[in-house]
Amino acid sequence: MKSGLFHQEEQVMCDEQTVSLVDVLEEDEELEEEASAVLAGSDSDHCSYPQGYVKRQALYACNTCTPKGGEAAGVCLACSYKCHEGHELYELYTKRNFRCDCGNRKFTELQCKLYPDKDDFNILNKYSHNFFGVYCTCSRPYPDPDDQVEDEMIQCVVCEDWLHGRHLGCVVPDCVELQEMICESCMNKTPFLWTYAAHLAVPGAAAQVKEETGGNSNTDIKKKDQVNDVLKPSSKRGHEEVEPSCKLKELQEIGQARIQSGAVFWPSAWRSKLCFCNTCQERLSEADLSFLLDESDTVLAYEKKGKNNEQNQQGHDPLMSALDNLNRVQQLEIIHEYNDMKTELKDFLQRFAAEGKVVTPNDIRQFFEQQQSRKRRRVDAGRFYST
């Protein structure tokens, strides 16, 4: 998944796949960074239920407690650790305006260990097929053992479902990590977004823009009439009160249209260019899209918060504080020893991968025993030659 993580238990098999051990080591730093971005924005020790409908948080669904065929439910990060340890969990990445369900009436045999006093249901929560471990318009699991096509998955910022790039109905642009995507289904449910798309969206294969002139065809006229219908104020305000300050109306009057097909990608800061007039705010509210006017709602904003939290926590790490108290020579010695051990461990695992052997706990134990033995020999040698 793009910009997302899924807690998955990986098994090292005694076959050709054993070589993935090296890949795991090489990608460890990247995975840790992604994990801190997603998880550090959520509390791993306390159930989020008392906070109400949290603006955005990491969520999980438990297939052990609420399997397919039952009622969908979601649990917060802390409950996934404390209440559902050893269960089969689906990681949902992050979702907005959600309240933890752990232990409520949807869980017939489980009581929340962290906050048992919950209402029977959270009526404002929104659920989708993601809560049963399937995603995209194809309703397939992730990872999909039957899918041999390498394809990234991208989350729609409106419905928050994850879709395969090949099922978006458009070409996925470059630097997609810095962009937001709205799927075709959500675009069609809120047609006025197509007006914004013609002016603000990232150009793509499905985005063919054309100028409307006085010689419009009947099709173009019909499409323009449809847009005008969408732009009519939902309240009884007079036309003269809305038109001067409505950006959406001004964009429509420019006469630029876009083929209404496929998902739409939006560049960073596109939300700040939406219309904030009273009529448009009401329109977005009626469509349950008020969050689009909030730039802090974005996943990038959430991830940035998570990274900052992680950095602040690291600033209070006693091990880091101890390292800071060492002199420069001692610091360099520790760094060199750590890098040497990391290199030797990688080489050690590489040999197992090359021979197609499984690494056992005893192998790892022997490796660190050898490391300790070498360290003792270096210390003894240093003492022998010291004067």
TrEMBL record:
Among PROSITE patterns, the record links this protein to: ZF_UBR
Pfam families annotated for this entry? zf-UBR (PF02207)
Q: Name one GO molecular function term.
A: ubiquitin protein ligase activity
Q: What class of enzyme is it?
A: transferase
Keywords recorded for this protein, A-Z: Isopeptide bond, Metal-binding, Phosphoprotein, Transferase, Ubl conjugation, Ubl conjugation pathway, Zinc, Zinc-finger
Named in its record, the pathway it takes part in is: Protein modification; protein ubiquitination
According to the UniProt record, one GO cellular component term is: cytoplasm
Q: What Enzyme Commission number does this protein have?
A: 2.3.2.27
Note the zinc finger regions (UBR-type) by start and end residue.
45-117
Respond yes or no to whether keyword Phosphoprotein is given for this record. Answer: yes
Q: Which reaction does it catalyse?
A: S-ubiquitinyl-[E2 ubiquitin-conjugating enzyme]-L-cysteine + [acceptor protein]-L-lysine = [E2 ubiquitin-conjugating enzyme]-L-cysteine + N(6)-ubiquitinyl-[acceptor protein]-L-lysine
User: Which residue range or ranges hold the UBR-type domain?
Assistant: 45-117
Question: Could you list the residue ranges forming a coiled coil in this record?
Answer: none
- Write down the CDD domains for this protein, in alphabetical order: PHD_UBR7, UBR-box_UBR7
Q: What's its job?
A: E3 ubiquitin-protein ligase which is a component of the N-end rule pathway. Recognizes and binds to proteins bearing specific N-terminal residues that are destabilizing according to the N-end rule, leading to their ubiquitination and subsequent degradation.
Name the chain's protein.
Answer: Putative E3 ubiquitin-protein ligase UBR7
